[in-house]
Each structure stands twice: as C-alpha cells, then as structure tokens.
C-alpha cells in the first residue's frame, strides 16, 4: 500500500516495512518521484528471495529509493511483541527510518 501511495499520489516521503505484494506493482516504479525507504526481511515467508531481488532491481533505477535487507530476519521483525520481533533489527530499521524522515521532511 505504501509503495502504491507513493507512486500514485505524490507524497513527500514514504517508508515501507516488509512490502508484501510490491512486486505486483513494479510496473509503476517510473511514477515514483517521492523519496522511498524500504525494509525487507531476507527470510520473509511472504516475500520470496526472487521477489525481493525483483523489487531491489526495479528500485535500483530510482536514485530516490533505498532498500535495506535484514539478514536472518522474518516477516514483521520490527513489530513489537510480534512472533518474529527482533529488537536489534527493529532498532536498526527504526533508526534508519527516523533519519530518513528527518532528512526528507525536516
């Protein structure tokens, strides 16, 4: 949803955690003008490694997009009290998000 909103509605900045189903809309990557930050869990059980690779490849052509991968992490690793919550990975992702939003919206 975040990727689509950023591509279709001209937001000031967007942050995607996990990005399920983003691959279905990669044809819209050329419309992405807003700064975008995406966090992907490398062991995400809902987003396969080939799909993650496709997302990274599509966004690599956009200088305003940054994708971070989190090795060993599963879907929703940053969701506090979730099944796969990992405090260290969540802190890293959340810190990157905070810095990104301060740079883009500050």
The overall pLDDT, averaged over residues, is 96
SSE pattern: HEEHEH
The separation of the N and C termini measures 24 Å
Strand order of the largest sheet: 1-2-3
Radius of gyration: 13 Å
As residue ranges, the low-confidence spans are none
Task: Provide the β-strand percentage band.
Answer: 15-25%
**Number of DSSP strand runs:** 3
Question: Could you explain how this protein is built, in words?
Answer:
The structure is a single chain. This protein has a three-stranded parallel sheet, with helices on both faces. The radius of gyration is 13 Å and the shape is globular. The longest helix is centred in the C-terminal third of the chain and has 19 residues. It has three helices and three strands. With about 110 residues, the chain is of the alpha/beta class. The mean pLDDT is about 95. α2 links the parallel β2 and β3. Helices cover about 35% and strands about 15% of the residues.
Describe this protein with a few key phrases:
globular; 37% helix; 3 strands; alpha/beta; 3-stranded parallel beta sheet; 106 residues
Give a short synopsis of this structure.
The protein is of the alpha/beta class. Helix content is 37%, strand content 15%.
Describe the SSE topology.
Blueprint: H1 2-9, E1 14-17, E2 36-41, H2 49-60, E3 65-70, H3 87-105
């Amino acid at each position: 949803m975040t990727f689509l909103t950023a591509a279709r509605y001209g937001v000031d900045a967007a942050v995607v955690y996990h990005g399920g189903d983003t691959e279905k809309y990669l044809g819209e990557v050329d419309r992405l003008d807003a700064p975008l930050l995406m966090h992907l869990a490398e062991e995400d059980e809902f987003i396969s490694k080939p799909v993650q690779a496709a997302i990274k490849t599509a966004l690599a052509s956009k200088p305003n997009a940054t994708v971070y991968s989190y090795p060993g992490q599963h879907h929703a690793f940053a969701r506090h009290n979730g099944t796969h919550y990992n405090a260290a990975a969540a802190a890293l992702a959340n810190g990157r998000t905070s810095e990104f939003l301060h740079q883009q919206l500050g």
